[in-house]
Amino acid sequence: MPHCTHIGMTVTTGPALSTISAAPNVPYSARRPAPGGRSSLRRVIIVDSAVPSYSAESPTLILADHLARSGAAVDVLPGIDVLPDVTPSGWIRLDGLPPSPRVPRPDAVELHSPDLVIGMSGPDGDAGAAARLAARTGARLLVVVTGLELPVPPHVLGALRTCDRITVPAESFRRTITSRGVEDSRVEVLPTWSQSVPSWLDRSDARRRLGWPERACIAVHSGPIGPDSGLESVVQAGGLVDSDCVIAVTGSGPLRPTIAALAAKVPNVLVPGPMDAEQRALTHVAADVLLVTEPMTSPQLTAPLELARCLSAGRPVVAAAPACGTLAAVLAQTGGAGLVVPPDEPTGLAGALLTLRADPSHRVAMGLAAISYATSRLSRDVVLSRFDLVLDAALSVGDDPA
Asked: What is the pTM of this model?
């Protein structure tokens, strides 16, 4: 089977999936027998968000590449392409993968009869689109949950209650969906993987390349800057630390101009300009401490991707997060890699940073715990090996043990 992956794009036209969209609904009980495990898996369709965005660490891209390298023909569609009232799109190559000799045509049988549909379900609820496609084609359905809208929409719950297997990034996700009628035995916690620049690169050199002060104790926040990021209190904490302690806010998002304006009034807070991928990676190397935030209340559950990156960098982590939240639960499993302070309390955050600045040996111990946890639990190879076990379980649902 050739190594091939395609992504459907809504900017072009073509009837490649019109047969799927027009096909009658098929009850979930009518799914055809599993193809006999991964070795016999031939056709996979991954249904992504309605308006997908791909990066080097995109779970969709990584899973598509992993399955393709195992010998499956993999197609990736935006969720909008499987709605029955939308004309399906044409196809383009997925950048970064080897060229494929397969060029789908409207009569391409493999597109109309996948063995497996994988739904990438974020807060916008794409599990529903994947479930419709699986029902129409009789394929097995695996849903990879990366985020949940709260309360969980009924059409998403319907998909989760009937799919063959579900992966979630943390126990808080499992509790949320099982409390709403999803069978616990079909849910597997699969941590968010991360590939980070190795922490043994030279910290001083990274700071020189970024133009950051070389002798200060620098705490870096590199997550998204959105309405629920809690960064106003992070900036306020910068006004409560000593002059040799600096907070750098390096992420991007719609509230970045607002945070930059607040930081301009605080001498100990940096908000650097836009960065490329290499510079963003260097910020973790340059840091003494890494910051993550989680609001007390949020309309969403989101995967702690930024925490995974921080732990992979081998630096101590300070989380401004509720004690009952996802970040605190993950950090409790790391063997001492992080400190948790209440969200939206600048005094507590400033105190934690000053305590770590004064104790370099403690920072080293926390960083070692972080890299140990990340290596054993969060590396891409480890997580994909666990994903393969979930995949086997999804493909064997309903098999006769005899």
From this structure: 0.75
